[in-house]
Amino acid sequence: MPTNRSDDYAAFDVVVVPFPYADRLIEKRRPAIVVSIPELASEYGLAWLAMVTSADNRRWECDIVVADLKAAGLPAPSLVRPAKIATVDVARIVRRIGALGERDRNGLAERMRSFLG
Fold first, then answer.
1. How far apart are alpha carbons 41 and 111 in whole angstroms?
2. What backbone phi and psi angles, to 5 degrees, belong to 90?
């Protein structure tokens, strides 16, 4: 894995990472959304990531449709699945491919706040 500077990633960046599955003992390289602040990375070398999945998959009530695919750097219709969060070492992030547009950021932030109660 390439070594990344811990301050290279901001909240709502779209990155490629080997994303761990909670229900399987595998990882798959896929896009994910950074949902933590850079200070988590600089202090602990970690990032919190929300899973991105194809819009063709069965939709969950909490999913956020990515409206601005171009800004996000995503090649196909996609959903952010904020119920599936992973903590990863920033050194495992392969690269940044884009960032969520403002509308998508607002929707994801609102959904994440609802999970916090």
1. 22
2. -60, -25
Tell whether domain 13-116 is in CATH 3.30.70.20. Answer: no
**Selection from 86, 107, 116, 112 nearest residue 15 by Cα:** 86
Pairing of strands 46-54, 13-20: unpaired
Tokens of 78: 């996609």
Q: Model pTM?
A: 0.87
> 50: which 2 tokens?
């929300």
Cβ-based burial of 56 (10 A; exposed 0-12, middle 13-18, buried ≥19)? exposed
pLDDT higher than 70, residue 5: no
The DSSP secondary structure of 5-58, one letter per residue, reads -TTS--TTEEEEEEEEPSSSS-EEEEEEEE-S-HHHHHHHSEEEEEEEEETTSP
DSSP state of 75: S
